[in-house]
Amino acid sequence: MGYEALARKWRPKQFGDVVGQEHVTRTLCNAIRNGRLHHAYLFVGPRGIGKTSIARIFAKALCCENGGPTETPCDRCSSCLEIAAGNSLDVIEIDGASNNNVEQVRELRDTVKFAPVRGAFKIYLIDEVHMLSAGAFNALLKTLEEPPSHVKFIFATTEPEKVLPTIISRCQRFDLRRIPVGQIVDRLTQIVESDQVRAEPDALLAVARGAEGGLRDAESALDQLIAFTGNTITEADVLAVFGLVSRETIERLVDGILEGDIRVLLRITGDLDDAGKDLQRLLVELIGYFRNLLVCLHVENPGKELALPAEQVSVLEGQVGKSNTGRLLRVVTMLSDAEDRMRYALSRRVLLETVLIRCARAATVVTLEEILEKIQALREDGGGVGRGPVAARGVRQEVDFRSRAVASAPSSVARELEEAPAAPAALPLGVAESDLHMMARLQACWPEVVKRVSKIAVGSAAALMDLVPLEVEGDHVVLGYPLEFRERMEVLRHTRLQSGLHQILRRYLDRDVVVRLQGFDGPAPAVEVPAAIAESVVCENTGAGAHASSSRNSRAAWYQDPHVQAVLEAFNGEVADIRGVS
Ligand SMILES: [Zn+2]
Q: How confident is the model at residue 358 (pLDDT cuts 50, 70, 90)?
């Protein structure tokens, strides 16, 4: 017998052989057992997870000559054999992708009338049913409305939203799920054992990870690996063939994030990029890993829930010990945000590096809950928090924090303006401020300007962060951006953002300016301002100079307080109000 592809050789023959879709096979078996058969079924789900296999088994189960309809078709009678070989006259398989015109469906409609040749049913399997043309759909609908009792329809689709609702409503719908990694590994183990191939457990795990829930993909990958490596498969082979990153490396990256070890993160990222690994893929895997950590943190028996070997679960548990829910959630959010941007990033490596650094910070910053717990603990210890220096001064300072949802609407320009201070009144400069002074002022205020403007339009932060003040000449301000990121600058074209930038600059610089963008190659050109001038300039919101006595200044000082900043950072929040400051 010639070579047979693994996916084909291991295609399930019975409901009991189907991997990972018990919720579907169980329901179908019950229906057969109780004689409650519907006339049309729709199987929905991504490719390679068993839709067609289940449809064929169902067809065999209905038509089997040994006791059909039966939950366990015999696989020996002529009906079972013909269906398995794809040449049964009573089971008509149609590929929606290649037979999508009206004529063919009309033909189908005409044959529906004729009684089955062999058994009690005539079954139409239509794969990729969403590919049928509108005319074909309508022709099909007529038949679906009043099918003869011997006719059954089984549809399969990867894109249910493209199937006419009137068709879906006439079907019993089953949503097949992606198959969990653990179950794919089990099946692969079974296959290599039976084919006498030696494979490291980590190698099979890597294949399963790469298949993203599709058993057929996993089996095809295994086929490819056997062809590539002969009869011994190592994890390294799998990683090399599919550009995946080893589990051990991912574990080290996660350690790096949880411990805030930026040096390790940069080194590993560099190595992976040099080795040509798929960084987008890595990001997806990291998201999955952090999800596993969260599961570990909240589930009684994580080994069972995650379907992972005990050894890996103990690694996860060790890592969870270094973190908590709030921090892990922040990291997952950041990684997910980056996943979208990764697709369009010019330099994936740079993006990944920045994201990992941000994650490392988010994973190590103390959350407000933790601070509150500590304060509570101090109180209970009889420590004098209430008698601390702030209270002793008799001034009550309250800061309202409003947590900001990740996808929240951008704050309005108006509010940013309201929060932005008026230009410092006590600037020790004459009316004719020189360009250098202006430059110094712009440099001093720039971080604050960026922060405010980036709140005006979601997604503008990355672009704004890359801008640097290059030149001031009279009323003209030149901002530079790295040519490497020129696509990213598109976002700055938004009118709302531009007018926001102008208005905020006017507040900080105390004059109307014309802004021009200019690209530069390589590192940002440094613009030196003599120290004497730089020191004479005070940007209200950027330094110790802010602690002046006017009420505005003292509000700003609170905003700039390092503790307040730490809390804002921890919560991804913003100051909504400051009370108790006159
Ligand atoms: Zn049979």
A: very high
